[in-house]
Amino acid sequence: LALAEGYRPGDTDLSWTRATSWRSVLAATLDQPHGTITGGIVAAEGRNPTADLITAWLSTRLGVPFRRDISSGPGMTDVSFMTSEGTISIARPDGRTASLSQPGEPPRTVALHRRETPDLLAEELRRLDPDEVYGEVLAAAAAATAASTAGAI
Predict the structure, then answer these.
(1) Which SS3 state, helix, strand or coil, does residue 49 take?
(2) CA distances for 140 relative to 33, 61, 95, 150, angstroms
(3) What are the respective helix, strand and coil percentages of the chain, to the nearest 5?
(4) What are 19-68's pLDDT values in tens digits?
């Protein structure tokens, strides 16, 4: 999140690239009918900038508050959406396979592997244009971190 201060269009961040698989699964999940989203939780091990970026992305895109919780990892382990019909949850406790739970549906298994650095670099090299969404999310995550730090003083 320290990158926010000097960010220029075209900058990249492997923490954001690491979020691509999660963002795809989350977007596909919300493509299905669901109740009104009222908030959510993103859980990951303590110092995980990918989780901070996902939290900011969901908050800004959905216009509702998301809380960042700490888990034992590895990496991001859970994203939950609180809806008017119940909780939608994607849990990945092992870093490889996730379970998608939705109200009124049986749990489903979703492939959600943690990717290695060479795979992340290859993804970034395929796409060299500025990522406007990343710039917006980085600014939102930095603002949220500053607000929570100010509130803790």
Answers:
(1) helix
(2) 27, 11, 26, 15
(3) 40, 25, 35
(4) 999 999 999 999 988 999 999 999 999 989 999 999 999 999 999 999 99
What is the C-alpha separation between 97 and 76, in angstroms, rounded?
A: 12
Taking 50 as the threshold, does the pLDDT of residue 153 lie above it?
no
* Owner of token pair 């049986």: 106
Which tokens go with 95?
């870093």
Tokens encoding 60: 């800004």
Task: Give residue limits of the domains in the chain.
Answer: 2-128
The token duo for 62 is 């959905």
CA distance 4 to 47: 17
